[in-house]
Write a structure and sequence with these properties.
Number of helices: 14
Bound molecules: adenosine monophosphate
Shape: elongated
Number of strands: 17
Low-confidence stretches: none
Helix content: 25-40%
Strand order of the largest sheet: 3-4-2-1-5-6
Radius of gyration: 23 Å
Mean pLDDT: 96
CATH class of the largest domain: Alpha Beta
Length: 395
């Protein structure tokens, strides 16, 4: 794999696509700098080699030039995190920008204005990409969050650096983590899929059936499987038109020797609210007027046993309505089990959507092996797709 580790950046200008799409408050203060922190190792390695850095990113979804989406708002934060006074130029292509980039001394960092002030960015425009390519000697992609988009700065620009392009540290780590789960995995491999809907996870399930030994189907998704098998699910969330599909998945899993585990009991609530009355019941005997909102105690124990026996774990999607404190127990217990297995040497990857939020909220972030930084990019990787941003570097 072509990474920054294989290149000596002495006297070179690196054009780095980073993902600085960070949340800002009403006074334009950065409220969560995780993404800037995540890009730091790549930037520091290049500066320490004796190179210079040109940073390009998008911020939000501006329609043309919109001051509130200017990257000038984050210059101080980036400077503080990297420990270098970052220069800023209020455009991302053109003569002024080329001059600012070529005037950079080694050890210096320049941040460009929001790429999406130009519609050409998301269109993947070639002329725009070529203009961007004039700003560096080496192209580095370190933005996993946008690697599934064939945009100018994430994909098309790479063709203007046929010999001089590589992955940054963050993107390399994401690729290695996904590989560890889907390709070079130590057995037994367990995938835990939760969340609300079967329909949003179906492509992932189909792709991973060839790669895993165990599959836990939890959360709201499980009720479609239970109903399809003749169970009574009360008012629980269910996709009636996906029942057939659920049965097909179970058949396919059986044929491939994958053991599927669906919760056996649930916390049922008489309303979708933190103040609801609750009772524990078997997942296939939920009374009318009640809905399953969290994993029950027997299911939590079952999850723990499978997790502790696994050597590789992928977790995507919560196993209950974790946003409500009363229904977060199952998701927290599962997080604890995965943390314990990780401590024993199991590789655990948390990726895609709400399980990342849950892991951060409940403090498991540093107790699992890797938490992915990309929502859509992670989901598409798990679906078995090659991401354009990754392919462009490998080509
Ligand atoms: P996803 O984005 O597909 O991972 O879905 C995450 C959402 O699934 C979260 O907002 C959870 O509240 C929701 N969820 C998990 N379990 C249930 C359940 N039993 N009933 C309703 N929603 C659920």
């Amino acid at each position: 794999m072509k990474t920054i580790q294989n290149i000596n950046f002495k006297n070179k200008r690196a054009l780095i696509r980073v993902d600085f799409n960070v949340p800002l408050d009403e006074n334009f203060n950065v409220t969560d700098a995780t993404r800037i922190e995540a890009a730091k190792p790549t930037i520091i390695k290049i500066l320490e080699d004796g190179g210079a850095v040109v940073l390009m990113s998008h911020l939000g979804r501006p329609k043309g030039v919109e001051e509130k989406y200017s990257l000038k708002h984050i210059v101080d934060k980036v400077s503080e995190i990297i420990g270098v006074d970052v220069k800023f130029v209020d455009d991302c292509i053109g003569e002024k920008v080329e001059k600012a980039a070529s005037n950079l001394k080694m050890g210096e960092v320049l941040l460009l204005e929001n790429l999406r002030f130009y519609a050409e960015e998301t269109k993947g425009d070639e002329v725009f990409s070529e203009k961007l390519s004039k700003l560096g000697d080496v192209y580095v992609n370190d933005a996993f969050g946008t690697a599934h988009r064939a945009h100018a700065s994430t994909t098309i620009v790479a063709k203007f650096f046929p010999e001089n392009k590589c992955f940054g540290n963050l993107l390399a780590q994401e690729i290695i983590s996904i590989k560890k789960v889907l390709e070079d995995s130590e057995k037994p491999v367990l995938a835990i899929l939760g969340g609300a809907k079967v329909s949003s996870k179906i492509t992932i399930i189909e792709n991973i059936l060839d790669k895993v030994d165990h599959l836990i189907i939890g959360g709201g998704m499980s009720f479609t499987f239970i109903k399809a098998q003749g169970g009574k699910i009360g008012n629980s969330i269910c996709e009636d038109d996906k029942q057939e599909l659920a049965l097909e998945i179970l058949e396919k899993a059986k044929a491939k020797g994958v053991q599927v585990h669906i919760p056996v009991d649930v916390v049922a609530a008489d309303a979708f609210s933190n103040n609801a009355n609750t009772q524990i019941c078997d997942i296939d005997k939920i009374p009318d007027g009640w809905e399953g909102v969290d994993a029950g105690p027997k299911s939590i124990e079952m999850f723990d046993k499978i997790v502790m026996e696994s050597k590789t774990i992928l977790w995507n999607g919560p196993v209950g309505v974790f946003e409500m404190e009363k229904f977060a127990k199952g998701t927290i217990a599962l997080g604890n089990s995965i943390a314990a297995a990780t401590k024993k040497g199991t590789f655990s990857l948390v990726g895609g959507g709400d399980s990342v939020a849950a892991v951060k909220q409940f403090g498991f972030e540093h107790k699992v092996s890797y938490v992915s930084t990309g929502g859509g990019a992670m989901l598409e990787s798990l679906e078995g797709k090659t991401l354009p941003g990754i392919e462009a570097i490998l080509k």
